[in-house]
Write a structure and sequence with these properties.
Elements lengths: L1 E8 L3 H17 L9 E5 L6 E2 L4 E2 L7 H12 L3 E6 L9 H13 L3 E4 L4 E2 L1 E4 L4 E4 L1 H34 L11
Helix pairs in contact: 3-4
């Protein structure tokens, strides 16, 4: 059986390497093979389609290039039935995009496994003798996707408050250059 991996990092190469190794070990332990062309990696930063000034989403249809390649691959290969990601934000930080992608996978009977939460969007039903959508996991994914945005907005406000406070006291606000 084949699986695909989605690996994204916004900073360093080690973060991508550790994700790849962790997810490959999981796939192998579960009896899946992951061909090299089924590993979708990219460096991508920020809140996809999010305007930090208005704190609103500009583009809810935005899909990261690695996810778009994965979708094309799923359309071509009916044997690909599992996608493994290290955490939900590897799909997107936009809850609308996450919702749309989870639905897209489900309509194609592709299981999404989110490693850090041990969430699997489909489970085998011995009674029905087939894989079925796990509604409780889907509900958790939607809640987590929305919570992530709320938490991100809080962090932005706390950071701004801290910087403003330092500036009011005449303290340095910023960071040292790396050069």
């Amino acid at each position: 059986m084949k699986a695909a991996l989605v690996i994204r990092a916004s900073r360093d190469k080690q973060e991508m390497d550790s994700q790849r190794e962790q997810l490959l070990r999981y796939a192998e332990a579960e009896g899946y093979t992951v061909p090299a062309e089924y590993i979708h990696e990219e460096h991508y930063t920020g809140m996809d389609g999010f305007d930090p000034k208005t704190e609103e989403y500009l583009d809810t249809d935005f899909v990261r290039p690695s996810i778009a390649r994965l979708q094309e691959q799923i359309e071509r290969d009916n044997d690909l039935k599992l996608v493994i990601i290290s955490e939900l934000t590897r799909l997107s930080r936009n809850p609308f995009t996450v919702t749309r992608l989870v639905n897209w996978f489900n309509t194609r009977q592709v299981t999404l496994y989110i490693y850090d939460m041990e969430w699997c969007t489909r489970k085998y039903s011995p009674l029905q003798k087939k894989w079925v959508i796990d509604d409780s996991v889907i509900d958790q994914i939607f809640a987590a996707a929305n919570y992530g945005v709320i938490e991100w907005k809080k962090i932005r406000k706390r950071t701004k408050r801290g910087r403003d406070y330092k500036a009011e006291q005449g303290l340095y606000v910023g960071h040292l250059s790396d050069g």
